[in-house]
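Chapter summary example.
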Amino acid sequence: MAYKGLIKDIEKCIRLEVPSRVPVFALSEEFDVRMSGIMYCDYNSNSKLMAESQINAIKKYDYDWAWLQVDDCIEFEVLGVGVKGGGNILPATCDYLPFSYETYHNLRIPDFKKEGRMPVLLDAIKRIKDEFGDTVCVTGRVAAPLSSVTLLYGMMPTYLGIYDNPQLVKDTVKFFTEMQTLWGIEQIKAGADALWVGDCNASGHLISVDTFMEFAFEGVKVCAENFKSAGGWSFYHASEHSIPHLKAMAKTGVSAVSAGPGVDIGEVKAAIGDQVCIIGNVNPIETLLEKTAEEVYEDAKQVMLKGKPGGGYIYNSGEMIPRDVPEENIKAMVKAGRDFGAY
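The structure predicted for these 343 residues follows.
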């Protein structure tokens, strides 16, 4: 069960020190909603259901956090971006806005307490924090600035724009640096201990290190600084597999860097573990979805044993856990974390 020393242990991990035990996280939101017996479309639009689902999952599966990633549309539907999804299909952005200065000049900071589903997330954060206090790391969500640009204009227009109109991309990154800072701080005020800073659209799967440094780095750095000043941590995730990209990401000043499932966590620890706390990275497909509970336990054990030495490490899956993962496999992952996470 979540424990009273958790927040201090996470602080030690972020300072690259050895905690009393490794915090155990899981990117399990879809799975947790399935196990709660509700539809995802109800979960992501109702703060009471959202909080109850997270609270019940933490008590049942022994996670050390509540992960309120929810979906990538919350910040963008209020700006006029289209949304597609429903039922148990997570909403996704579509019908993007034109890549133009006309769009840029019409952008505005939303009223986080009143518009769209943003108040739903704020209220769910408060409910969970009220339930657990400092025994659970309540983690909200923001999209990192460059990924935000892709979720406004679309991926292709944004990355063509890097060559055709780089200044518009940079100007829009600045807008989202401000907006996501304010949105994250509002979640911290509601009770979030940390923000999950999602930047998968700025990963090595899509852009070079040089492009990351020119267009993504500064926005992430500023957001991380502002969240820290407001009393919150930044857990940065780009599902990254490239060591050169991870080295660049480690310099942004975020509280921790989450490694994607496509890279060995020991290699990540060796490359950047002396610079920043590492999070990760049990494979959600090849391990959690496709293997037996016994195999999951052994795979997860190896991840823990590679990440844990010397501290500065938080155990987690490397990406979102599919909703159809067998329940016994989640339990096996958490058990491995508990069995081998003590120092």
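To summarize the output: The mean pLDDT is 97.
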